[in-house]
Structure prediction request, 685 residues.
Amino acid sequence: MRKLLQTLETLRQKRKLGLMTHVVVGYPRLEETIRLVKAMGETGADLIELQMPFSDPVADGPTILIANKVSLDQGTKMRDCLRVMSQLSGEMEVPLLFMGYYNLIFNYGVEKFCQDAAKAGAQGLIVPDIPPDEESEEHYYEACNQYGLVPIIVVSPASTEKRLKMLANYAKGFVYAVSRYGITGARAELAPELIDYLKRVRQFIHLPLAVGFGISKKEHIQALAPHAEIAVVGSALINLYNQLPEGEKIEGIKKFIRELKN
Amino acid sequence: MKSIAVQVTNYQALPDERGHFGIYGGRYVPEMLFPALEELEAAYLEAKKDPAFHKELNDLYTHYSGRPTPLYFCSNLSRQLQGAKIYVKNEGLNHTGAHKINHCLGQALLAKRMGKRRIIAETGAGQHGLASATVAAKFGFQCVIYMGEVDVARQRPNVFWMERLGAEVRPVTFGNKTLTDAVNAALKDWIENVRDTYYLLGSAVGPHPYPTIVRDFQSVVGREVRKQLQEQEGRLPDYIIACVGGGSNAMGIFYEFLNEEKVRLIGVEAGGRGIRPGEHAARFQGGRLGVVEGFKSFFLQDEDGQIMKTHSVSAGLDYAGVGPEISYLWETGRIQASYATDEEALEALQILIRTEGIIPALESAHAVAEAIKLAPKLDRDKIIVVNLSGRGDKDIFIIAEALKDVKWQEFLKSKVNHPGHVT
Prediction:
């Protein structure tokens, strides 16, 4: 929790848009995940999501879905995810978060997972399919809080006022705002719907907003900067990684992140 | 695995207002789906209270689908087995050949009431896609069916009919290119087009309120059975047997009898090639509690919680999860779980065809297999009702292949070599 809160505070003071990047643990191989995360951290990623691969990733698009499958086909296990987290968090100051689907955590044991993830150095959890609506059954948010993990709330353009108010009670650290709306027109401006949506979220939740809408260019980041605190880059990184020739992949990712950050 | 019998006073009182059947069910979905599910729930609760809605649905059941379907006494089969009397509830005589039309009609009316113009559905083998395309044609909805690329290739006859019915079949080209990936693609479509699109779910699974909606639209099956058996035998059945994939036909016939504790309810899962990892789809034989695709229930999963591959000769039972209400009823001891292997189902299919002249769907043949095992152990005054959820003649390609019919293979080859020829 400490590293995450510190990073958020630093971003606030510098009034700079932060960058959150994403990897799927074990894609394409475990050792490569470690190299990738380190490379991202060295070149300026402010936060990094480590996705634990799952067989049925319903909230992900084709790129990440395929990465999940490849990783599982390689034999990636939950213990590998925790080991990778532990190794990386010991070597980096950049806050690392686990992203994953609830069945993995439920199956592991919610309390035990939170305990082990925190011990491995995870700063928070991003779990799209565990809404607070099921908290009286699952005690997931309770376990996160107990072990010092920040449970990241996800909001969507379809979230009603009533739901935003309810979600505000559980939100900590920052809020992950997903969006289909992105950049419009040749002048690379944010879609007005996206700006309205972010304003609406801010009315009810007073935390930094991390926004992802398929960001893949520096122009996207520049357009987003006045409206959010953190830009989320996910599948664009995997797509780029896949396209780069062997031997140039890590360098290519570093170059891309440097460009985004400048 | 053993279930623990507990005291329940009213089995029909569930789910609770958040969609829980005991610890099962619920709404474990990403935030972007919440508003759509809340809208659906509100529309359904309102429709449920509206007599005009029920009247319209009942008219469709009667005049479009051909309900009530017969409850037929299998005198030859019963005599041959020398035990209990076996009745079949012949849902195969519905329009489109299976019970699926019951919840497709109900959901189509709901979609119309909600002002939606477009319906989407996922399908594995194509049966649900076909039923969805049928109601879309009838009600004038635009219709998109998501189907894994592998399934599109395997199930050409169903794809052919869906397209004739005016649906667009969109092959899903990522992942394993089968049912899970089709669900994934359909969900994304729904998230993006929720304003004008209704997601027509194919079984008593998924997040609240789907398991309840599907069960309620299917429960007409059990109500008819009660009335028909009363007329024919003047009493309740002793056993009711249904196959269980997601649980739509099972909940349909069981629901009416849940509080009749003397009526024993048996759910038959797919034993596939035997109860070994990856070889079957019997969730109560080694499945564990999990939270997948929006609900909590029993799933076949590995030690990490990854969903395992399943196998069954019948596509409709080939699913790693089971509906939440089925899990609840199993846990409380109200229903008993059994399974039939591919081989047993195929044998039962041939027995029913030969003795009664009824061709069951491969799914339903699993329930028939259980009846064939059970009947000889019971006295002749006992009554078993089997839910024959679908008919098999529409599955001619799959059944002929499963039975390894050599002449059929020759026929297919001759069609390929001499297209258009009448042989």
Remarks:
- The beta strands of chain A are 18-24, 47-51, 96-99, 124-126, 150-155, 175-178, 183-184, 189-190, 209-212, 230-233.
